Amino acid sequence: MTLLAEQFRLVDEATPLELRGTVSELRGLTLRVEDLAAPIGTLTAIHPRSQTARPVLAEIIGFERSTALAMPLDDAAGIRAGDEAVALQHRPTVRVGRALLGRVIDALGRPLDGRGPVDVSATWPLRRRPDQAMTRPRIEHPLATGVRAVDAMTPLGRGQRIGVFAPPGLGKSTLLGTMARHTAADVSVIALVGERGREVKDYVESVLGPEGLARSVVVVATGDEPPPLRVRAAEAATSIAEWFRADGSDVLLIMDSVTRYCQALRQIGLAAGEPPATKGFPPSVFATLPKLLERSGRTQSGSITGIYSVLIEGDELDDPVSEACRGILDGHLLLSRKLAERGHYPPSTSSSPSAASPSTSSPKSTEVARREVIKLLASYEQVEDLLTIGRLRLGQQPRRRPRHQPQTQHRRPAPAGPQRVPGPRRLPPDPVPAPRPQPGHPAGTQRPPATRRTPQPAHPAMKD
Ligand SMILES: Nc1ncnc2c1ncn2[C@@H]1O[C@H](COP(=O)(O)OP(=O)(O)O)[C@@H](O)[C@H]1O
Ligand SMILES: [Mg+2]
């Protein structure tokens, strides 16, 4: 059975009959092709009648009785009613092989780096079901990303999946590219989905650099490309990562960004006639997203550690895509605008504990150090305002009083002359009133008044 597995797969993927149809309408981004009974996802070539025009590829995204709804993967200019559509591949595949390393390709595997054809012949399904839950080994080994702030504070396990959540312009792409360049994984597969065209070259040459690129595969579909191509770029990168994992490698899969992938799915769903449900996203988006994200993870042969960037609008993770991603992924890393504005990179503020699984973060000293840093950061946050207004200097401890100390212990015998009293500093120097029992507190005890918590210069008459 295993000997013939490849042959069975080829038979399964083959289109038994050549299916043909006729273009009847193009409305917006949706092509209607009559009498084409091809399944969803089929790659189709539309042959314009003009002899000089090249065939236009399209993908079947839905159907109504015998009419297929398709979306062009290319510029639809030149297509006319009556043009012939021929189904090419009803189970889409990606071409894979080690020759992909160091290459920049588009969603259909075509080279974008001007270095000639990519010499690969094996194929791998573009849309594969995630592995069954019980067949997956546990996450046991750490994976260094090469970014110390991440490795120390959000240690990743080989096969884990995390989301990097941030508003635009805070350094997500730079952080993800740095990880791809310096990671301890064998291979990095990077999907740039919906990025600006001008950013891609800069990303490949500056962020990834020649040595990072040499062990990476970059799959690009920029924001101006048709939605099915952007969706395919995310899927093709995942498929390529799966092939390397099946080949025994530990892979770092980077997807920048999942939000743009979901936006492309939304455009496809709406074009196929789905109703918008959650903030304009049709239901199919949230059914398709877990199928993609669940494909990374660990298998018996290797692992795919997934890092997915998610765009957020403010500092809240309450948009539908963020909420869905948080539910699917193992953990998250949140980047803060405040830190980025101060030039603090990577501006990571919080990370979820599930991403920082102690079982993966070895050695033990790293975990101890991580807890210490969390404690220090929490203390800093408490006194940050006092430091800013100059009421506390670095190295000085904030003055605190125990909460339930008997009143008699605070009060000193009244010295001669004016008294310091709790409350606003401009009160007349009256004698201290006798303490009264407070409701809810045992008699004779009193919470220190709030104004006492901020350090105040002592009255000259009172010496500490
Ligand atoms: N590590 C870094 N060091 C210095 N500047 C950075 C760093 N990371 C990001 N930046 C700055 O932030 C800008 C946006 O970064 P980018 O990675 O494109 O953000 P995003 O992908 O979140 O939109 C960069 O052009 C750069 O000026
Ligand atoms: Mg970016």
UniProtKB/TrEMBL annotation:
Any GO BP annotation: protein secretion by the type III secretion system
Gene3D superfamilies: 3.40.50.12240
Biased composition (Basic residues): 398-413
A single cellular component GO annotation: type III protein secretion system complex
Record's compositionally biased regions (Pro residues): 425-440
InterPro entries: AAA+_ATPase, ATPase_alpha/beta_chains, ATPase_F1/V1/A1_a/bsu_nucl-bd, ATPase_T3SS_FliI/YscN, P-loop_NTPase
Keywords assigned by UniProt, alphabetized: ATP-binding, Cytoplasm, Nucleotide-binding, Protein transport, Translocase, Transport
Localization per record: Cytoplasm
Start and end residues of each stretch annotated as Disordered: 342-367, 393-464
One Gene Ontology molecular-function label: ATP hydrolysis activity
Residue intervals of the AAA+ ATPase domain: 158-339
Biased composition (Low complexity): 346-363, 442-464
Protein name: Putative ATP synthase YscN
The organism's taxonomic lineage, starting at the top: Bacteria, Pseudomonadati, Planctomycetota, Phycisphaerae, Phycisphaerales
GN (gene name): yscN
